[in-house]
Amino acid sequence: MALTHSLLAPGELSQQVGANAREARLAKNLSRKTLAQMTGVSESTIKRFESSGQITLDILVLIATALGATRQIAELFTYEHPISLEEIKQAGRVRGRK
Q1: How many domains does the chain have?
Q2: Where does the HTH cro/C1-type domain start and stop, copy by copy (predicted)?
């Protein structure tokens, strides 16, 4: 699988997401222990996530909910429809069954 448009490697992107979660937690003045109690996720899992970005999707959703970031998770793969005629021409063929 080629990632030609990404500026970050998958591992780097995961680490950035973990670092962002840490910043969000600290901005809300929450300790790892408090976040663990809010989510039902162990402190060690939160620590691992914040440092490496390694986590399951279910736990990511629990942490995002506690940190008020569910909108960002829900919009992760949304498709923005073209709005101009030029964008429609550039979009090409629409895939899928008819």
Answers
A1: 1
A2: 22-76
